[in-house]
Amino acid sequence: MSTESSSTVARVLKPTILILIAIVAISSRLFSIIRFESVIHEFDPWFNYRTTQHLVKNGFYDFWNWFDEKSWYPLGRVVGGTVYPGIMVTSALIHNVLHFFNFPVDIRNVCVFLAPMFSGLTAFSAYLLTKELKDSSAGLLAAAFLGVAPGYISRSVAGSYDNEGIAIFLLVFTFYLWIKAVKTGSAFFGLLTALFYFYMVSAWGGYVFITNLVPLHAFTLLLMGRYSNRLYVSYSTFCAVGTLLSMQIPFVGFQPTRTSEHMAALGVFGLLQLYAFAELVRGYIPPKQFRTLLRGGVVAVAVIASFGLTILSFSGVIAPFTGRFYSLYDTGYAKIHIPIIASVSEHQPTAWTSFFFDLQMLIFLFPAGVYLCFKELKDEHVFIILYSVFASYFAGVMVRLMLTLTPVVCVSAAIAYSTLLDTYLETSEHVLASTKPAIAAAATSAPTVIEATTSDSKATGKKTAAKAAAAAAAAAAAKSTDAEAKAHAKSAASSEKKRFPIFNLDSRLLVILQLTWFLFMFAWHCTYVTSGSYSSPSIVLASRQQDGSQMIIDDFREAYYWLRKNTKEDAKVMSWWDYGYQMAGMANVTTLVDNNTWNNTHIATVGKAMSTSEEVSYKVLRHHDVDYVLILFGGVIGYSGDDINKFLWMIRIAEGVYPNDVKETNFFTPRGEYKVDHDATKTMRESLMYKMSYYRFAELYGSGNAVDHVRNARMPAEGPTLSVLEEAYTTENWLVRIYKVKDLDILGRDLKDSTAFDKGRVRKVSSLKKK
Amino acid sequence: MNDIKTAASSLLTAYIKDTPKSLKLIDSYMVYVLLTGIIQFVYVVIAGTFPNNAFLAGFISTVASFVLAANLRIQTNPKNASQFPTTSPERAFADFLACNVVVHFAVANFLG
């Protein structure tokens, strides 16, 4: 096979492989659809879905100015100004384009399949990025890795309609464009970087990562003495246009000129301008005069800059870092100051096992890839090194930032892997390429050389003519004075100076087979993790019964459907904030708090209503016009993510705002345990949450045998009584319980008395009947 | 101080002598843009930033124009031709136009 025809084959093969990778990436994200149905997952996606529906139904202008009075009752929420609209606009656009061509696709299906489709594009951009760093074969490997890496799949399975689904594509593609811009020094690529940066800003709050990483790259290059006009052109185009564009998103607003997170970009921008100007001046005058001018310039700039910074920080124009960012630098910060951030499990520090779980073999190829970047150390490799260092740190601090680490791990692991393959497969390629000249060279050189090399290759057992000739060519180039032979073998010899060719078939096979085995293991692990851990929609649960058959637990949708059909249109339903988005999306009711946790006080109020006694909490409920209260209770089927287990967070958050009404210590037994059974404290037993959870629970089991399966607690035979609420609906497996808030008594009595009175009468009537 | 004076004067003469006319044209445009920016900034310091978006739009417009003109100047400078093998002066001008269109579209949107 000649090199020409092999490059033709490669030209056909590369797109085919890329398309296959995209298909694999998409189809490995479809487990949940095959097992359950095409349904939106989890919590946040429900909000995105609801807003997308609004956008498709009412148009863009209405969406932009949407004031949602159905959430955060009675405050409401300005949706248009408090969302990253990227994902909604993207899917609405796809929906409208498809409808224009008469494909009547439901918006729900567009939303469900959006993340898998974009994962195909992500794989493609990983290919482009890695191609800029090494070559296209490493690029293909990177695409394949990123296509199936669980670290990325975790946020992009079908139905997981969340910002990250498209944001990772944008992240990788923006970085590709940036590297391309730095390499070529083209303002056009700088502009494209800025445009995709804008798309990223519109899609995910993680855009700050780009805002800081790109300036950091530019700054590092400056420090390394690698300033070039290309860097100036690409960075200043990106920064000027990108900053302006990012301010067009209402949610971001003036932040790029105010907050410290964005200041690095502007600082590097200013620095680069000064540096470029100095370079310009240097071109015109002799070095000595330049030095005097430079000294004067530096002094002037330093005076002006320190003066300006002092004024700005004193007048408070530049805002300090926000809480979420503090928690990135100091992992203990959130736990002490902001329980609402700490209470979210995805904001917890990462356990080391999850690095292996999410990245498998990539995690040990990753450092090797970074090392190889150090060896090359061109401008773009500096970028990958910086990216990997910072992403590793952030991924260690917060679980969800594993997502930003995954692309760089895939890229550098692909570089390492492909370098290994190059080293161990290279000789055969080199033989193919240089067979003819090598034979010619061997023929002209001394026969003793050939003898020596053939005896060498005898040791391997299996010798091929081509191999011997190749060795001879190398030897000939080294020893023979024949100029012609030298010229022929020059290309082969120069490539061998860098790397040691590995001739022995057995050592080559050993490594190659092992690497292939790793690939198999990797693919197997990725599929296993995806199907086992990341494909559960979490609104529909599946469990195996003892005989192995599958049991579907659909209590959430059952409860939301009940709410949708049986409550007034403007019914206000109180629940813990986790379920706010789902209730708004599925039950179409007004909620008090939801997953947009922007108002801590309001959440604490709900926490107070849940954790105080009936009398206190009834006042809170009436104040907020609450009609229904919804809670999750997993005690019957052993679902551990229920409200009693989250109760401590509610108490903590409530205590932060209402320290007089709620005290965390009152919920612990004298021995410091969190108990719900006989040992539960009085405060615990009187709290509304406890009462709602265990109301009539004991009746389910006969006398004294009630067992809470989540906490393995034997419950008292006499369950709690409720007087200000009445049970409205409890789902099949008791997973969701809905209570109706009673109206004030018509006779003006205390609700407790009236309930007692009603009970007394009921008892009387039933005892009369018996007689 | 005297050193700086002589250095500055030699810089000026060297600049006038060695710079092609087209670059001087771009330079004069850049000086004009710089002055506009400074005037806006002084205005803001005196009168306050009240329509903040309008100020930012105007100011960033000048900064971006300045930077884009600097890009054009760098890319069309014959001295730098070796650093930009793929960028001809015509291509540089096309890039300049494309960037300006995007910037001023955003500026117009932001003026409010």
Give a written overview of the molecule.
The complex is a heterodimer of chains A (771) and B (112). Chain A is mostly helical and 771 residues long. Among the domains of chain A are: 163-320, no CATH class; 552-758, Rossmann fold (3-Layer(aba) Sandwich), CATH 3.40.50. Chain A contains 33 helices and eleven strands. Chain A has a five-stranded mixed beta sheet with strand order 6-5-7-11-10, with helices on both faces. In chain A, helix 1 runs parallel beside helix 6, helix 3 crosses helix 4 (86-100) and helix 10 (207-223) crosses helix 20 (379-397). Chain A is globular. Chain B is mostly helical. Helices cover 82% and strands 0% of the residues of chain B. The longest helix of chain B is centred in the N-terminal third of the chain and has 27 residues, at 21-47. Chain B is flat and about 45 Å long. At the A-B interface, helix 9, helix 11, helix 13 and helix 14 of A face helix 1, helix 3 and helix 4 of B. Chain A: One of its GO terms (cellular component) is oligosaccharyltransferase complex. Chain A: Belongs to the STT3 family.
Topology:
The complex is a heterodimer of chains A (771) and B (112).
Chain A: H1 3-27, H2 31-35, H3 44-64, E1 67-68, E2 77-78, H4 86-100, H5 107-133, H6 136-148, H7 150-153, H8 163-184, H9 187-203, H10 207-223, H11 229-246, H12 255-258, H13 263-282, H14 287-315, H15 323-329, H16 333-337, H17 339-342, H18 352-359, H19 362-376, H20 379-397, H21 402-444, H22 447-458, H23 465-479, H24 483-498, H25 505-533, E3 541-544, E4 550-553, H26 555-566, E5 572-574, H27 580-587, E6 590-591, H28 600-611, H29 614-623, E7 628-632, H30 643-657, H31 682-686, H32 688-694, E8 707-708, E9 713-714, E10 725-730, E11 736-741, H33 751-770
Parallel strand pairs in A: 5-6, 5-7
Antiparallel strand pairs in A: 1-2, 3-4, 7-11, 8-9, 10-11
Helix pairs in contact in A: 1-5, 1-6, 3-4, 3-27, 4-5, 5-6, 5-8, 5-21, 6-21, 8-9, 8-11, 9-11, 10-13, 10-20, 11-13, 19-20, 19-21, 20-21, 21-23, 21-24, 21-25, 22-23, 23-24, 26-27, 28-29, 28-30
Chain B: H1 2-18, H2 21-47, H3 52-76, H4 89-111
Helix pairs in contact in B: 2-3, 3-4
